[in-house]
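Dear all,

This email documents one entry for the complex benchmark we are building for the journal club exercise. For each entry we list the sequence lines for every component of the assembly. Then comes the predicted three-dimensional structure of the complex as a token string, followed by one or two observations. Please use this as the template for your own entries, and keep the labels exactly as they appear.
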Amino acid sequence: MAARIRQPGFYRAGVWMVGAVAFSFFLTWVVRTSTGHSTFRHFISGDAILTVALIAVPLAFLIGIGGFDYWFYWAAGRPTRPEDHSGHGAYTWKDYFRINTDHKVIGIQYTVNSFIFLLVGGLLAMLMRAQLAQPGSHFVDANTFNGLFSVHASILIFLFIIPVFAGLGNFVIPLMIGAPDMAFPRLNALSFWLLPVAGLMMLGSFFAPGGSFADGWTAYAPLSTNAPIGQTFFSVAVQFAGASSVMTALNFLVTIITMRAPGMSFFRMPLLVWANFATSLLVVIATPFIAASQFFVLLDRALGFNFFNAGHGGDVLMYQHVFWFYSHPAVYIMMLPGFGIISEVIAVKARKPIFGYRMMAFSLLAIVGLGFTVWAHHMFTSGMANWIRIPMAITTSIIAVPTGIKIFSWLATLYRGVLHLDTPMLFTLGFLTTFTLGGISGVMLAMIPFDIHVSSSYFIVAHIHYVLFGGSLMTIFAGVYYWFPKMTGRMFDERLGKWHFWTTFVFLNLTFGPMHILGLQGMPRRVSTYASQFADMNLFISIASFGLGLSVLIFLYNIVTSWRGGPRATANPYRAMTLEWHVSSPPPVFNFDRVPTVVGGPYEYGVPGAQHGIFTPTPTPMGASAGVHATSGET
Amino acid sequence: MEAASIAHAHGHEEHHGPPPAHKSSRVEPQLLGMLLFIISEVMIFGAFFTAYFFIRVAQGDPWPATGTKLPVDVAGVNTAILVSSSFTIHWAQTSIKNGNRFGLKAGMLTTFLLGATFLFVQINEYANIGFAPQDGAQETIFYSLTGLHGAHVFIGLCLLLFVTVRAFRGHYSPEEHRGVEVPGIYWHFVDVMWLVVYSTVYIL
Ligand SMILES: [Cu+2]
């Protein structure tokens, strides 16, 4: 037992966490007794202890499982020790529950963890639709309902969409650029373990006195600064999720810049790598703003600061500016990696070079730049100075251009292609349809009068779900199916995959399509009940949404059974050219036994004699380590 | 833990370790990582300056709040202390590049002491300034900007301390001094940031 407590792992984490709780009691007691300030009325306060514990306990957990071990070792003045890769690979399921520095293990940790939170977030949506099935129902009370949609949004944004892309990127990017691992494996390991912490904290807010945070994922001040303690769970959880994002983004950027295989110039990189490069830039630049916005809220709540206390000169509009300066770029953080996935799938499945490769890359960078110029389009009805709306409406319309370039490039790639309509491709085509619809309603919302008209209505709910479900989630499904053979070494069931696609696509449109109409008719969003004139359509939406929920079960069944007993995958089942398909499925522990040399573009399908990566000279026989062969580009 | 030992056993029978990664850039990964991280840090200061902008410029509130006074002179001396620490750490870095171990140790120790003095003066300033962040928005902004910077000084000091300890333990050489350089960049960033904070909060 004593040895277990000394070694990194869950036992040691438990001990540290108990210590952190004790520390929280002690610190609040000391601070409160030693300050005579009127803010500290009592010596002991549950809220104060909880606030400190929310920060201290997760840190203690991370220390306990060994996330900081190397840096402690370094700080103690010992000699530096380059990551020796001894912890690489996963040989039993237990290896997924420890600090693991292998990017492939971390990629799977990320992805599986994200999908667990997708189920939780989806379940919360089901509860909401159950409440909304009839007007005036009492399935949950109004405050709980507010909590449901707030946690639903926060979980799916911070714990599903953003990290699942980081997970897929983690698995695929080093393989795609011919690198043995990420640039900072220990940082990578730590960045994963911040996520379950953030997620459990958000869910844990349901058990807080006064209920969970209930003012949306936007947590506008002064609602958030006056809310019960559940709000603190959100503010702190966002810090952990944000730190995880930034760590991964730094890792991606450094890996992509410094670890590409010989011959892989920037314009020979697959577009998924480009997309994650652009996304990481957004994360590094924008995420500090949401961190700061939640610092402000925390300081106002916990220490009586006056950022948003209008009575003392605070400015509540400032919250929205700071928040949206992150959260508009965040919609691209939630979309650009998906664009990358679509580019990969579409070129391989249409057996054609991607149309306008350079424009695809430049449009990503254009989105990064323009993404920082549009934030106040979320604030047209906030009471800010009227003139700010006009430049924001213009930039918001302009940012549709690079996105439009991508859509047309994909369509041009499909044109006269030899389409292989399997599951990843179906999700790709579904994405093109629903995302374009969501994009068009987005351009509509850029129009100031229209936005003012529908701003607080279900039209916004329809738009965001067409973009995030019809957009991001479709690309995620496409990506998970596409790389499933590479990640697990097994093939998924194609028939179930097609069932999954069609149920998703149909129920998605049946659920979110009518919300446009509801919004235009004036049904307000964020309400637990509504006027009886909207009853029929809401019942319809609720039934469709349950169908959508059930469609996810097909996916789960497919993934679980295929992972356990699906047919073995070959190294390159799709005859793709990018480097990750040059190694076995799943890849060997160290990815490449020799670093490949890149001699051409990644998408030269149908170009006679074209090659992307080759292994020169012929590798020494390393057993069955890889289906090492240069892919030819036949269609 | 048994999982680790299993991984280890496998590691030995199957693998010889990965081939070294190809270096596709002349920039060192650690250096690049630190520079990118500093972009994030600049942005977090940017967010706090946004709050400052909204209170002081957009709302046009008096600065500093009526009835309060900022110790511009004391903070000015403190600024000089912090700026001089940028020079001493540069001295330490040049020394180790030339193989001068004494210069490294003396330079790091001086830098650390200068930084610690800065932080001490800053805390002392809080104790004697005569207003609290709970008093009003301007006070909140004052404490937040200087406090955010103080937190960065603290992190920087921790890094400096680790480097100093390592310097005294005999690490680093003319060939291998990245461990002094990367924290040094962070320290320079902390210094430059203070110049921005000092000029906007105290002088302007
Ligand atoms: Cu936006």
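Observations: Strands of chain A lie at 597-598, 613-614. Residues 10-75 of chain A form one domain.
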